[in-house]
Design goal:
By secondary structure, the protein is an alpha+beta fold. The protein has 3 domains: 194 residues, Jelly Rolls (Sandwich); 53 residues, no CATH class; 86 residues, Malonyl-Coenzyme A Acyl Carrier Protein, domain 2 (3-Layer(aba) Sandwich). It is 25% helix and 26% strand. The protein is built from 11 helices and 19 strands. The longest helix is centred in the middle third of the chain and has 15 residues. The model has no long low-confidence stretch (mean pLDDT 95). The structure holds succinic acid and cobalt (II) ion (CO).
Amino acid sequence: MFELNLDISDFLENYWQKKPLVIKNGFSHFEDPIMPDEIAGLAMEEEVESRLVYKKDAQWHAELGPFKSFEQLEKENTSLLIQALDHWHSDAQELVRPFRFLPNWRIDDLMISYSTKGGGVGPHIDNYDVFITQGLGKRHWRVGAQEKLREFSANNALKHCEAFNAIIDVELEPGDILYIPSGYPHEGYAVEPSMNYSVGFRAPDQNDLLSSFADYCLDTTEEVPRYNDIDMQVREKPGQIETPELNELHRIMLAKCETPESLIPWFGCMISEAKHELDIAEIDPPHTEQEVQSLFNDGAEFIRLGGLRAVYFATAPDLLFINGEQFNCEGFTEFGHYLCDQDEIGSEAIELFDDNPDALALFTKLVNKGYWYVI
Ligand code: SIN
Ligand code: CO
């Protein structure tokens, strides 16, 4: 269990997306939830996204996993990074929980880096907010002000930025946390073999949002009327697009998203989709509802699969969006929302669905899909 030493209201008011912050001793008595050899083991797996970044003869190198051997990790100036560690390692997944004071839909994933002395990925700017927790070892971090800096490719897989003046220059020790808002240049180099855990946040690009919404409309609407101008008037200027014509185009474009609610099915499915592969194990043969009920009665704890995204909307409480799919929780919204709000549920949830067969049926379905599992 990781407990965050942070005044959350003060953080949200003064730092979140506003300025970087060093949270000294953010986690007291921090113990790494994963060991370096486990990180190497994961980097050998096909499904796991891993990268080896190193500097040799003043030249940056980046290689993508899976890796068969790790000679490079015996040398200095090297980092091994694993994306979406929360999908693959249940103990490490617990490091996301302290940051759930920010909503599920904004959290992206947990990345880990293991660095040898001098290891780092170089000076760069991320377009997402990140909390970087120091685990094993020490790492020296520099963070600059948000300013226009030249960015360039250090090689085909690494984007760097030019040198910057530091507004934060600090050596992190185990349990310290560095919060870096999107757009602030930073670089961190290990002072000694070091592990860092980064919880990153997604902020959808506005054009990507539009394009995703358009794709959703194409996929879900069979036939839509075409533009028509049955009231065509006599006109003098064939080169001119008349104001009512432009207004009609504008009306058509907005008709699909006239109210905030009309975005719900699209946004719910899109934002609950996992960006990185999930470690899904479907239950075979599937559990019956009675079996799931008995597991609850026997005190089982159900854990939400690492990285699985589950959300609902305040304005559409009867709908749940889980891993890109829409589910109905009419009649048992309290239980449905509990599933999305909690990382694990146990016998305390029984009273939320006790008399509702639909709730048990839905939960059984989700368990059989491998979305919640018993430890
Ligand atoms: C790292 O842990 O090496 C990279 C973290 C970052 O700079 O985003
Ligand atoms: Co970064």
